[in-house]
Write a structure and sequence with these properties.
The chain has 107 residues and is mainly alpha-helical. The chain contains 6 helices and no strands. Helix 1 runs antiparallel to helix 2.
């Protein structure tokens, strides 16, 4: 298990690596945004979207946080549909319990 609700067992090595990196960024807020987004979207992202996602992830966490929260203006080169999807993604911040995990995993 890599994240909270998604296993990486069915993913190719690149997607596994990205999913892991999303949950281990260094700033917990960015872990939650990127990790939750990746859990929901990683399997469906095209190779081109994965390339862009890795470029986004290479940005400094403090800059990403400022752009996503709107504290700083978004640079033009990051004003893309994929960045908008990441920034608009609303992680599930409900408390994690055994029951909630079973429900999310369909058990």
């Amino acid at each position: 298990m890599t994240g909270l609700a998604r296993t990486s067992a069915d993913l190719d090595p690149r997607r596994r690596r990205i999913l892991y990196r999303c949950w281990h960024r260094g700033i917990r807020e960015m872990d939650l945004v990127f990790g939750s987004f990746a859990e929901a979207e990683i399997a469906r992202l095209s190779d081109e979207e994965l390339d862009e996602f890795e470029q986004i992830m290479a940005e400094d966490d403090h800059d990403l946080h400022s752009w996503i929260t709107g504290a700083s203006p978004l640079p033009e080169d990051r004003n893309t549909p994929l960045f908008a999807r990441v920034a608009a993604y609303k992680p599930d911040f409900d408390p994690v319990t055994k029951e909630s995990l079973k429900e999310k995993l369909g058990q």
